[in-house]
Amino acid sequence: MIDPNDLSDIQDYSAATLRAQIERLLVSSTPEQLIYRECELDEIWRFIDLEIASLKASGGAASELASLTRQRDIVMQAHDLVGVNADANTAAQRLRELIAPKPHS
Q1: Phi and psi for 41 in degrees, rounded to 5?
Q2: 26 pLDDT above the threshold of 60
Q3: Domain encompassing residue 74
Q4: Number of structural domains, the chain?
Q5: Could you give the CA distance from residue 102 to residue 82 in angstroms, rounded to a whole number?
Q6: Which H/E stretch holds residue 16?
Q7: Would you say residue 9 lies in a domain?
Q8: CA-atom Rg of the chain in angstroms
């Protein structure tokens, strides 16, 4: 069971981490809980940012860099929705974009 009063230890930016973050966002409503979610989103952003820096340093593929940059931008948007607007539900919707199945072209 998720306790929104606990600050979760973020280890990565995997789909499992994002799903858990969405669950925490959806049960968070108090100012303290929203601050915890903001801190967790900061950590997710940091992991993505480190991956971007590593990819740039190694000369990684532009498509992968673009994908990671998009992910980082969405996480920051979710962060701002929580921190500025106190809108955890919309933040959760934004994060869902990162784990939703991609339509086939």
Answers
A1: -65, -35
A2: yes
A3: 15-99
A4: 1
A5: 26
A6: helix 15-26
A7: no
A8: 14
Greatest CA separation for the chain:
43
Taking CA atoms, 78 is separated from 1, 51, 61, 81, 104, in Å, by 23, 19, 26, 5, 26
| Span between the terminal Cα atoms of the chain, in Å | 38
> Is the residue at 1 inside a domain?
no
Confidence label for 46 from pLDDT (cuts 50, 70 and 90): very high
One-letter identity of residue 3: D
24, two tokens: 């925490």
Does any domain span residue 4?
A: no
Report yes or no on 10 lying in a domain: no
pTM: 0.92
Q: Which two tokens stand for residue 65?
A: 């860099």
